[in-house]
């Protein structure tokens, strides 16, 4: 016989488990944001204020750099001064609107090279020092974690030892992040990595099963698989191979890259499939084997994604039980909504909509699905009409059109709904479960 107190404890545990299952089951939408986008021509400049706080679950600020045994900003205006807000602080403002948003900073990138990393991982004492300095840097600027975008360990003049040293680097960083969280009571800093998708680079640069154990998730750079370094054209981000491809060519697609990382020891739910965002103004055609588009003009060929192809990739993520989608980059999608004759962020939005549909398989492992009983729909009550006139309330944005860019608006009917104006056009958003939109500019408890 179960005692009353035991029964209460059991019920509490069930509710907690259900809550954890729901939280973990959300597919991640990881969006890199490049600080260099501020230097583009006027109509294409991108600033932190252009960020939609709800379109991504994680934003990775790109990039910081490794300088000696410390992380340093790349841009002069990354850090705040006594006379101006820096890009770091301006980016963090998105979390005031969406407190669930996680913002990390990436160190590295292609132009950064591997030499600074090689110097850090030369010995464990230097790694320890770098880890301590990294925690100080991340906390100072309110980042939620660190993304390692080192392209690539052991490659580009890196010594062979860097493959194992990178594993040790990841392990020590994770251990230091765990210790700091326990000693301070703060939420642990996240640790992630951007990993190459080419089999040769994966084999030479990473000990996948070991780093996957310490990383919170892996961002698979499953794009730029073909390019100008080759003697023939190919799609930069095909989902599957063509039937006529042979040898190494058959590995240059997202499906093979994902399967290979999983086979090497990456848990499905930790693998985030990368989607490169590009566009084209040329004539287009669909490749049914690759499941992507390509554009052509005379002797020019460009492979790219559109709404149709990214939806297919989102379905693939669900079918394979992966952890979500990664986008390179937030500032490369049509953030104004005036270039593709579609909504703002059309490709990221398409993936978000597909991954958040109610019938989506869950990426979580080990949580038993909850069985629910669906009550039969009740027939609507009969209504009677009278001669009395009734006032019809039109639901929608509570404001005038065109709306003011950057402003937020309430919904005339639904307190959970709000609108953000993007260049004169309202974009409908929803607060999280149990929250309502506060006209002061944030989601609040009801």
TrEMBL record:
Keywords: Chitin-binding, Disulfide bond, Glycosidase, Hydrolase, Signal
Secretion signal, residue range per the UniProt entry: 1-25
Cross-referenced Pfam families: CBM_14, Glyco_hydro_18
GO (cellular component) term, any one: endoplasmic reticulum
GO process terms (BP): apoptotic process; carbohydrate metabolic process; chitin catabolic process
Molecular function terms, GO-annotated: chitin binding; chitinase activity
PROSITE patterns, per database record: GH18_1, GH18_2
Entries under InterPro entries matching the protein: Chitin-bd_dom, Chitin-bd_dom_sf, Chitinase_II/V-like_cat, GH, Glyco_hydro18_cat, Glyco_hydro_18_chit_AS, Glycosyl_Hydrlase_18
Biased segments, Low complexity type: 372-387
Highest taxon, organism lineage: Eukaryota
Annotated Gene3D superfamilies: Glycosidases
Disordered: annotated span: 359-389
Domain GH18: 27-358
Protein family: Belongs to the glycosyl hydrolase 18 family. Chitinase class II subfamily.
Record PANTHER family: CHITINASE (PTHR11177), CHITINASE 12-RELATED (PTHR11177:SF317)
Official protein name in the record: Mytichitin 4
Originating organism: Mytilus coruscus
């Amino acid at each position: 016989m179960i005692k009353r107190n035991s029964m209460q404890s059991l019920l509490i545990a069930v509710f907690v488990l259900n809550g954890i299952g729901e939280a973990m089951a959300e597919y991640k939408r990881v969006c890199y944001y490049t600080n260099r986008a501020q230097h583009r021509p006027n109509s294409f400049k991108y600033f932190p204020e252009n960020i939609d706080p709800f379109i991504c679950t994680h934003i990775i600020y790109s990039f910081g750099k490794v300088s000696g045994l410390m992380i340093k900003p790349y841009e002069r205006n990354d850090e705040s001064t006594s006379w101006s807000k820096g890009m770091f602080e301006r980016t963090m403002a998105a979390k005031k609107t969406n407190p669930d948003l996680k913002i990390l900073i990436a160190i590295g990138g292609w132009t950064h090279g591997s030499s600074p990393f090689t110097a850090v991982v030369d010995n464990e004492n230097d790694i320890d020092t770098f880890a301590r300095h990294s925690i100080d840097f991340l906390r100072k600027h309110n980042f939620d974690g660190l993304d390692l975008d080192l392209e690539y360990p052991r490659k580009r003049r890196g010594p062979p030892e860097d493959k194992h040293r990178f594993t040790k680097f990841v392990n020590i960083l994770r251990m230091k992040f765990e210790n700091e969280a326990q000693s301070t009571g703060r939420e642990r800093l996240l640790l992630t990595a951007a990993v190459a998708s080419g089999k040769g680079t994966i084999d030479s640069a990473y000990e996948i099963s070991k780093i996957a154990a310490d990383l919170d998730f892996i961002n698979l750079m499953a794009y730029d698989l073909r390019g100008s370094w080759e003697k023939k054209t190919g799609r930069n981000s095909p989902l599957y191979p063509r039937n006529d491809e042979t040898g190494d060519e058959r590995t240059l697609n997202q499906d093979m890259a994902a399967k290979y990382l999983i086979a090497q020891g990456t848990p499905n739910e930790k693998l985030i499939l990368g989607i490169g965002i590009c566009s084209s103004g040329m004539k287009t055609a669909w490749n049914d084997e690759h499941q992507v588009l390509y554009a052509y003009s005379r002797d020019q060929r460009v492979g790219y994604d559109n709404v149709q192809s990214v939806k297919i990739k989102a379905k693939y993520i669900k079918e394979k039980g992966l952890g979500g989608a990664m986008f390179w980059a937030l500032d490369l999608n049509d953030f104004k909504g005036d270039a593709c004759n579609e909504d703002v962020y059309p490709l990221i939005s398409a993936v978000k909509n597909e991954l958040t549909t109610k019938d989506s398989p869950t990426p979580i492992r080990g949580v038993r699905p909850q069985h629910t009983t669906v009550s039969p729909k009740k027939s609507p009550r009969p209504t009677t009409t009278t001669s009395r006139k009734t006032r019809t309330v039109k639901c929608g944005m509570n404001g005038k059109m065109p709306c003011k860019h950057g402003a937020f608006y309430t919904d005339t009917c639904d307190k959970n709904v709000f609108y953000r104006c993007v260049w004169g056009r309202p974009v409908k958003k929803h607060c999280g479960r149990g929250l309502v939109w506060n006209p002061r500019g944030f989601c609040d408890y009801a």
